[in-house]
Amino acid sequence: MRSILTSLVRFSLLWWVFGDISEKESIICEVEEECSSTEHPSLPSFLDRWGDFVSTDHPHCVDKNERDCPMKALLNACVKSPDVMLEECPFSCGLCSNYDTEKSQVKTCYGDLQNVNNQGVLEVIRKTQQYMIHQVFVNETYAKIRSSCKNRNVNCSQWAWEGECERNPTYMKKECAPACQTCHWLDIRIRCPFDESSAKERTTWSEPGDLDRFFWSVVRNDTLRTLFSLKVLSGPAEAIEPDGRPGPWVLQLDHFLSAMECERLIDLGHELGFQRSKDIGRIKYDGSTDSYESKSRTSSTAWCTESSVCGKDAIQQKVTQRIEQLVQIPINNSEALQLLRYEENQYYKVHHDYTPLHAGSMAGVRILTVFLYLNDDRLEGGGTNFPSIHNLTVLPNQGRAILWPSVLNDEPGQIDVRTEHQALPVERGVKYAANAWIHQRDFRTPLHMGCGV
Ligand SMILES: *[C@@H]1O[C@H](CO)[C@@H](O)[C@H](O)[C@H]1NC(C)=O
Ligand SMILES: *[C@@H]1O[C@H](CO)[C@@H](O)[C@H](O)[C@H]1NC(C)=O
Ligand SMILES: *[C@@H]1O[C@H](CO)[C@@H](O)[C@H](O)[C@H]1NC(C)=O
Ligand SMILES: *[C@@H]1O[C@H](CO)[C@@H](O)[C@H](O)[C@H]1NC(C)=O
Ligand SMILES: *[C@@H]1O[C@H](CO)[C@@H](O)[C@H](O)[C@H]1NC(C)=O
């Protein structure tokens, strides 16, 4: 009895909230079983009105018997035997509805409570409900992302109503996918269709030998040699100086940046704000990768993203243009410049810049690292050490650049394990540095499209 009463109260309340006056009267009438059957609403309008909201108590809020439930609901079974119907036909009955009148919020089984501040927002929620129940929960196309398609903000429905799905699609289509009806967007294969074999002509170093050709072109460039006192720290026997290591290419260019440029990059790092560096983590709900603080890396980082004060800085832009010319790869293939700060005793233990999770993505794997040292004054330690290249260590020197590949000359796209490296602990002072991680293909355009890795 008690549960029937609860249902009746909920029914009336919902109706009071969502129905117009005459409908409200008619439903109360039904509840009291005083109306003639001719006053029952038609099936579609009944579903429209009652099939609206889903509660977290009923994960998928679908009718167990899709054929019979609407009819039973129409015949007042929801009111007559709510316990059974709540179990069997929650959708048709709308018994799983959940509207908090005090807070003006609707609870759904796909994400956060939704703020409702006007009728338009309710309409969005109503349509979302239809979309989730009739497409996402039942259509196999959505199987992979079904459980991750959630409104991840209380204001999703309101924003959708205000037109934000169109105005701010990068955020909305992922964070408010139900409200925008863009659950498919969470599937990175659908969001970012990509076929690696057809992208070959846009891929840097796609053929065996390309990598060596690039490094030779730098090493044989007299302008570069004299301008930057170029040194082959490691490379093929024919390329190295007597004290060089035989192994993968590691080039050193001194005075690649002027002191003024170094100071500016350090200042920009402080303007952006250095924050604890992170490592690449697991794959997230939207197919991109997460980041996490790791004990193997204690430095701090500031990302010089395009839209930031740093990205717009003319001196920084000049530096990245110089990198672009040196590596002969479009700057769009590069991640934003990462500005680094290592305080005393901070380090980055042995790691590799190559990330297997990037393989087959639009941008592809990292193929080349350009590392810049921004200061050396009153600095001890903090060298870059390559344990698998005869323990080569490069010392910080203001304006010095070093570059090394992450992939093999003979097998494009495959990791060259020999270029694993570490940032040795700073023994005294503070070390400032920067690096550009360069990918096989355009990194920045996919990032803007929500296809970043
Ligand atoms: C499933 O969803 C896809 C993509 O929206 C659509 O093309 C297809 O027709 C749907 N299938 C059914 C059975 O509704
Ligand atoms: C939702 O919107 C309201 C105002 O419309 C705002 O005060 C609130 O901070 C927003 N909540 C979130 C989590 O964005
Ligand atoms: C040497 O490198 C510079 C800068 O990257 C470039 O402009 C120039 O064309 C190169 N010279 C030759 C002969 O390749
Ligand atoms: C490698 O070089 C580092 C830094 O110079 C040094 O601390 C370490 O002992 C060396 N390791 C080996 C195995 O020689
Ligand atoms: C580089 O990326 C930006 C987006 O960051 C894009 O607008 C631009 O067209 C890209 N340039 C090229 C040459 O692809």
Automatic annotation (TrEMBL):
Gene Ontology molecular functions: iron ion binding; L-ascorbic acid binding; procollagen-proline 4-dioxygenase activity
Keywords: Dioxygenase, Iron, Membrane, Metal-binding, Oxidoreductase, Signal, Transmembrane, Transmembrane helix
Primary localization class, coarse: membrane
SMART domains per the UniProt record, alphabetical: P4Hc, ShKT
Signal peptide: 1-19
Cofactor: L-ascorbate
GO CC aspect terms: endoplasmic reticulum; membrane
Topology in the lipid bilayer: Single-pass membrane protein
Sequence ranges assigned to domain ShKT in this UniProt record: 61-96, 149-183
Pfam families linked: 2OG-FeII_Oxy_3, ShK
Protein's UniProt name: Procollagen-proline 4-dioxygenase
Gene source species: Fistulifera solaris
High-level lineage: Eukaryota, Sar, Stramenopiles, Ochrophyta, Bacillariophyta
